[in-house]
Amino acid sequence: MASTSSNETVTQREQSIVLEDVKLMYTIFADVPPKTKLLMLELHRDNHMEYLLRGLQQLGPSFCALDANRPWICYWILHSIALLGESIDARLEDRTIDFLSRCQDPDGGYGGGPGQMPHLATTYAAVNSLITLGDEKSLSSIDRDKIYRFLLSMKDPNGAFRMHDAGEMDVRACYTAISVASVLNILDDELVRDVGNYILSCQTYEGGISGEPGSEAHGGYTFCGLATMILINEVDRLDLATLLDWVVFRQGVEGGFQGRTNKLVDGCYSFWQGGIFALLQRFHTIIGESMTLLDAGQANCADSPQTTVESDISDGEESLHGTSSSGDEACAIQQGVNFGNVDRKSIEGRAEREPLFNSIALQRYLLLCSQDPGGGLKDKPRKGRDHYHTCYCLSGLSVSQHCWSKDEDSSPLPRVVLGPYFNLLEPINPIHNVVLERYREAQEFFARS
Amino acid sequence: MESDEGERLPMSRRPEWSDVTPLPQDDGPDPVVPIDYKQDFTETMDYFRALYRAQERSPRALSLTQEAIRFNPGNYTVWHFRRQILESLDADLHEELDFVERIAKSNSKNYQIWHHRRWVAGKLGSDAAIKELEFTKKILSLDAKNYHAWSHRQWVLQALGGWEDELDFCQKLLEEDIFNNSAWNQRYFVVTRSPFLGGLKGMRDSEVSYTVEAIMANPENESPWRYLRGLYKDDIQSWVNDPKVSSVCLKVLRIKSNSVFALSMLLDLLCHGFRPSEEFREAIGALRTSDSEPLDSDLGKAICHVLQLVDSIRANYWMWRKSKLPVAV
After folding, report:
1. Bigger pLDDT: A346 or B318?
2. Hey, which residues 189-248 in chain B have their CB within 8 Å of chain A?
3. Which residues contact A198 (CB under 8 A, 6 or more apart)?
4. Which residues of B touch A102 (CB under 8 A)?
5. Which among A155, A297, B31, B230 counts the fewest CB atoms within 10 Å?
6. Which region ranges are annotated with the description Disordered (chain B) (predicted)?
7. Residues 6 or more apart in contact with residue A421 via CB below 8 angstroms
8. B25, B30, B32: best mutation site toward chain A, by most A Cβ within 10 Å?
9. What integer pLDDT is reported at residue B210 of this predicted model?
10. DSSP letters of A260-312?
11. Residue A386 DSSP label
12. Is there a contact between A405 and A102 (Cβ–Cβ < 8 Å)?
């Protein structure tokens, strides 16, 4: 029951309201029969696709407020579609390339719409969109020489970047600039110079990273700062132990992540915070290697009473992991699912590791609390869907499904994918947040050209 | 026809605009993510594009940017052009602050507004400090964790001054909501950067006392725990050796509920060389839910084990921490 004590502060009151909503959802889930459970955990792929394709083709008048973010809307939609393993038809692809070309400034970089000033964030969104589309026509539509000049012109003498001409300077600007430069293979010493000092000055006493020096540690900026430091090969300058300790505490009993200490859970941080774990695992050898100490082949978690290790009911799956009562049931449900589409031989003896966050609890939050059954994903119960949350909830879902694999090319075991195995999304490159395969194609393309 | 004040004469029928040819958006024949713009929006932006292309920095251009911003306060190009016009016209920037305030009322989480505000306040200089602190205070009274408002406030303090009452301001916000991590962060900012206080070293004793009190009142509140650790940033030895730190851990452990942060801090202390007395061992032993297993002789391992139980969402993390513990002494 939500406490109605008048002594509660605003933070406590808001938190207990959200917790009530989430608990209610999990209680309903715990009480329904197994078949219904399975349905509840389903990723509504068809409805999400319908919602995404509709947005790509028409947006209502309320989107006037996002008129300076149209490449972002493209990216949120196209990346979501790619995560779902789908693609758009050739005609729609051509229309996207044409539209984004109209957002490209004659002097380099992309603006929020045709005729708008070039901006680092929309440049990032446009480049990631074109990489997600992926073919030669799409990739060659990016004017790399001019983008390089634009990036350089956004660099401040202190090493950080400004979002646009005389615009705001922050960690987001640094990330979008360095990410774009790296993926387009135009990153050089001049762009890198002193940006690490700026990021370092933004790591706070809490361990996370803030938007500007002095501000509060925040999930979005922590992701951006960490990814930047990895790309410029200066990640060891950060206090990673404290950063890890900070981010691990951002996951709440709801299963999802909050963006800052004592703030509310929000589905979009599934990526911003969850992605931090993927970055540390994949790109930081010291933490990454020691994470692999926890090998799934052994009876890992055997000394953890929260983890149920259940023997197989039907087909010899070795163990199931869950970390709370409702999770256990969710996992138990998986056993009833037909894994017919998985080659059992290929997944035996695969190298696995436990992620340092609770990936099953995160998937449960995303599927039960952040999903609009009519299509699209959202922040939390009672909130509405939007393209931004759809993109980052799905990105976080992909991270939580794939973070168990040591090797980024192996498909996850069914037991680490909550719900039916067809919930499995495409893996991403977590630094740029584009689907891994498209990232590799782009990397190859820009290495050649 | 509606007869409310929102009724608007199309620009094409206003004589003062008759010399301007509106410039439509170059969306192409078949754009993706097309927005079903309202007619007023399209017309305003068509005129905006025309003036922007011509770089017309005139009073009418200034008022047009105002209209365009009302339609979409996120359009950074419009804001940028507006700044250029304000400069060219040498406009009254106090009025500009009032305009920003009106827009911010309904859009307080938008980068452009705050960037613009910073630009205007920077032009006005230290005279604007009090007004800016008041403005952010007003925004924070509606949402005490507004990230942009806090960043702006920090910029104001550093660029324009006004540090004198800032610790009191933090104090007041923390009295209202001791869980407000943004206020804790601001407190840290003030303690470490205010030219009127003695810096971290000079403030540490009183800050530790304040923080310990906050922890004892709400041991489940993560903010003061992180703050406490922050007070010893770059001085780990003092943190390990200060009995006030270890004793607040012990006190909380003895309450036997909400012990996660106390356990976590004690674990960190141990990892950095803290030598625990028998009291700590007893307090940890008393937290075990079952007596079937003996308490691990390595206190670090015992703490990780308890944390795996009481903080199950982070069970993997605690297990990993256990695997990384320094060899017990």
Report:
1. B318
2. 189, 193, 221-223, 226-227, 229-230, 233
3. A158, A159, A160, A171, A174, A213
4. 26-28, 31
5. A297
6. 1-32
7. A337, A339, A341, A342, A414
8. B32
9. 98
10. STT--B-TTHHHHTHHHHHHHHHH-HHHHHHHTTSBTTS-TTTT-TTS--PPP
11. B
12. no
Instruction: Determine phi and psi for A295, rounding to 5 degrees.
Output: -95, 130
CA–CA distance, A110 with B105 (Å, rounded to integer): 30
**Cβ separation of A301 and B323 shorter than 8 Å?**
no
Provide the ipTM.
0.96
3-state SS assignment for residue A252: coil
Which chain A residues contact residue B150 at CB under 8 A?
215-216
Q: Which residues, numbered 76 to 135 in chain B, qualify as contacts with chain A under a Cβ-Cβ cut-off of 8 Å?
A: 76-77, 80, 83, 111, 114-115, 118
Tokens 């250029």 locate to B84
Percentage of chain B lying above the pLDDT 70 cut: 96
- Rounded Cα distance between A96 and A99, Å, is 5
Chain A interface includes B325 (CB < 8 A): no
Tell me, what DSSP letter sits at residue B325? P
**Which residues lie across from A161 on neighbouring strands?**
A155
Identify any residues that bridge with A435 across adjacent strands, giving them in sequence order: A428
Residues 6+ apart with CB under 8 A from B200: B191, B192, B231, B233
Tell me the C-alpha distance between B183 and B189, whole Å. Answer: 10
Task: Tell me how long chain B is.
Answer: 329
CA–CA distance, A211 with B151 (Å, rounded to integer): 8
pLDDT tens, residue by residue, A108-154: 999 999 999 999 999 999 999 999 999 999 999 999 999 999 999 99
A262 with B222: Cβ contact below 8 A: yes
Look at strands A434-435 and A428-429 and give their pairing: antiparallel
DSSP one-letter code for B164: G
| DSSP-derived 3-state class of residue A317 | coil
Give the span between the Cα atoms of A122 and A113, in whole angstroms. 9
Taking alpha carbons only, the member of A151, A355, A173 closest to residue A247 is A355
Burial class (CB in 10 A: 0-12, 13-18, 19+), A33: exposed
Q: In chain B, which ranges are continuous DSSP H helix?
A: 39-54, 59-71, 76-89, 93-106, 111-124, 129-142, 147-160, 166-176, 181-193, 199-217, 222-230, 236-241, 243-255, 260-271, 278-287, 299-310, 315-323
Q: How confident is the model over A229-255, as a mean pLDDT?
A: 97
CB contact under 8 A, B32 and A102: no
Assess B305–A contact: CB distance below 8 Å, yes or no. Answer: yes
Predicted local confidence at residue B327, as pLDDT: 75
Put simply, the answer to whether B308 touches A12 (Cβ < 8 Å) is no
Which tokens hold the place of B328? 């017990």
